[in-house]
Prior knowledge:
Layout lengths: L8 H56 L16 E5 L2 E5 L8 E2 L5 H7 L5 H10 L9 H4 L3 H7 E2 L7
Parallel strand pairs: 3-4
Antiparallel strand pairs: 1-2
Amino acid sequence: MCKPKEEGYALLLVIFAMTILSVIFINLVEVIHVNNLLVRNNLNERELRLAAESGLVRGIKKLLTDDTLSDSYDDDWTKPFSGIAGRIAYEVTIEDIGSRLNINYTSYRIISECLPWWKPSFQTELEKHGLCSELVSLREILGEDYPEAKKVLTTYGPFDL
């Protein structure tokens, strides 16, 4: 038999040990869960990177096989193409920004000769506006012609605006 003052010590020790073991077990489960999330995230990032590289390589290959002497909007490489890398579907669009007219330094006479939809009112508004850093800021001026303008005009060039 136990002494009167020692009754329940064994029970307290077992409860204390179970509490400490429970805390350790909960922390271990949390660490395992976080590690699983990190591994899954790492795998998803790798898969995404491989899909991006795949699209880039296919785009470069398409540009390298282009044997035309000049660029036009009807070239094969201007049409978007898609593919699948692993579980990720991607779409690649190649834009020829170098052959666009720079609205900041191309004369309005040349722009109006090249673009049949160009209106004289655009020139007046653009002269008030001054240099344009982004084509989207001209959306109000160009109105319904903005989608067409996006295809043939740019703000990039020697000024690198």
